[in-house]
Design goal:
heterodimer; A: 11 strands; 0% helix; globular
Chain lengths: 114, 116
């Protein structure tokens, strides 16, 4: 079955550590996205990529980094520069970045900073 | 810029009650409109969408009509079930600024709790 996988489901980090969240899709989608979800705040866009080897910052990119070396993979690194990283992180993809395209979401990774 | 406003939750209903979750938007041009649903501990999944004015999206008993004149896309269901308990997100995707990309704008989500 096609879909998006994220790992791990739960992640614990000590302050000062970088961590990388995995996102893989086998839908053959060109566009991929990372969102952060905090209670009562909806989804906020961190980074997005429309094509391999290219990505753009979203609304809250500070303290995060991404890479897009393969079409199916879009890992997110939460660096020590991110001041408040505890949140639920969602990865999504769409065929292309168009107005009518549906976004397909992974199950999410819950990151907790200890 | 584009924005989506949803009614605040939680919305608490008894089983078989009628559901309305209000959604209004601000956008330039003619965006596509979406409702996504998120069950506890999961990612979002598309519930329904409409891509032009007066279109009605429907799925699993849920409906929403794209009303350009009132810039609204209210979600309705005639008879809710306990299994409908989830968070519902309204979203739009419209023409980007020159040189930009189509990135959806999401509302803050409305929690629905259905009691037996």
């Amino acid at each position: 079955d096609g879909g998006i996988t994220q790992s791990p489901k739960y992640l614990f980090r000590k302050e000062g550590q970088n961590v990388t969240l995995s996102c893989e899709q086998n839908l053959n989608h060109d566009a991929m996205y990372w969102y952060r979800q905090d209670p009562g705040q909806g989804l906020r866009l961190i980074y997005y990529s429309q094509i391999v080897n290219d990505f753009q910052k979203g609304d809250i990119a500070e303290g995060y980094s991404v890479s897009r070396e393969k079409k199916e993979s879009f890992p997110l690194t939460v660096t020590s520069a991110q001041k408040n990283p505890t949140a639920f992180y969602l990865c999504a993809s769409s065929i292309i970045a168009s107005s009518t395209d549906t976004q397909y979401f992974g199950p999410g990774t819950r990151l907790t900073v200890l | 810029g584009d924005s989506v406003t949803q009614m605040e939750g939680p919305v608490t209903l008894s089983e078989e009650a009628f559901l309305t979750i209000n959604c209004t938007y601000t956008a330039t041009g003619y965006p596509s409109l979406f409702w996504y649903v998120q069950y506890p501990g999961e990612g979002l999944q598309l519930l329904l969408k409409a891509t032009k004015a007066d279109d009605k999206g429907s799925n699993k008993g849920f409906e929403a009509t794209y009303r350009k004149e009132t810039t609204s896309f209210h979600l309705e269901k005639g008879s809710v079930q306990v299994s409908d308990s989830a968070v519902y997100f309204c979203a739009l995707s419209g023409p980007p600024p020159t040189g930009g990309s189509y990135i959806p704008t999401f509302g803050r989500g409305t929690s629905l709790i259905v009691h037996p």
